[in-house]
Write a structure and sequence with these properties.
0% strand; 2 domains; mainly alpha; Endonuclease Iii, domain 2
Length: 265
């Protein structure tokens, strides 16, 4: 990461956030918190955390609304996500679920519920509880936990792992190609991003701006991509003349562009 000072980092996010609010179509002040997408309001017990993990596993690649509508039947079919009971099931116990129209009938994901219950049991035996293991990671190492969740659990990829952490209340962020492109152009990420580089920038921006990790990643994504905005600013073909970051931007300044003037400044 380039050695931008805290004042510069805070100013960068302030300008991104202000630009998103100017370009907003639906009201930037109403940017929902990630817990909006949670299936449960609380995540105090291992069973609650496990159910939230399973929800995002089933939702990956499907409509969240469809999965949410089927969730009461899913909860009943999987014994209210009782970890010990599910871990003790044999393969025959799953057979009726493969043809149950009340469920998401994805054989691999259904089988993964039982398998992942066993994994949670093993983690709890080693660390005291599943929740204790998750919470043993500090905010600046949650990117490592994100990788571990995706590595440990069947049918849980990087996206499902990301949404599980976000919706369960962990101070995490989401990482997109749009945000990486923006940070590279600002000189905050190297051309070849190494493990931990993106996290280091996010932690520095968080410390400097006081914004949550979720707010940082959401507004960077929207600013760069144009999602729910009238336009995206830092796209593949950037709108440099309309960008409020030109004086911080290595891409703009290396191109030898003159500063914007008049209404574009």
């Amino acid at each position: 990461m380039n050695h931008a000072n805290a004042a510069d980092l805070a100013d960068i996010f302030r300008r991104i956030d202000a630009s998103c609010q100017r370009l907003e179509l639906e009201g930037a002040q109403n940017l929902p918190e990630p817990t909006t997408w949670a299936i449960l309001p609380r995540h105090d017990s291992d069973e609650e955390l496990f159910e939230e993990l399973c929800f995002h596993m089933f939702a990956a690649g499907f409509s969240r609304e469809v999965v949410r509508n089927k969730w009461p039947a899913t909860r009943k079919a999987f014994a209210d996500f009782n970890i010990a009971e599910l871990a003790a099931w044999d393969a025959a116990r799953l057979l009726p679920l493969f043809t149950d129209r009340g469920l998401i009938r994805n054989r691999r994901k259904i089988e993964s519920v039982r398998h992942n219950a066993e994994i949670v049991q093993g983690i709890a035996a080693e660390h005291g509880s599943f929740g204790a293991w998750l919470r043993s990671y500090t905010p600046d190492t949650l990117h490592l936990l994100h990788q571990e969740v995706a590595r440990h659990f069947a049918s849980v990829g990087p996206s499902a792992s990301e949404w599980f952490l976000l919706s369960s209340g962990f101070p995490f962020y989401f990482r997109t190609d749009h945000a990486e492109r923006l940070l590279k152009r600002l000189g905050l990420l190297p051309a070849r991003v190494r493990q931990g580089d993106f996290n280091a920038v996010m932690q520095a921006l968080h410390q400097a701006s006081g914004a949550s990790h979720w707010q940082l990643s959401a507004q960077m994504f929207r600013f760069a991509s144009g999602f729910h905005l009238r336009e995206g600013v830092c796209q593949e073909l950037p709108h440099c003349a309309k960008c409020p970051l030109w004086d911080h931007c290595a891409y703009f300044n290396q191109a030898g562009n003159p500063p914007p003037t008049g209404k574009d400044a």
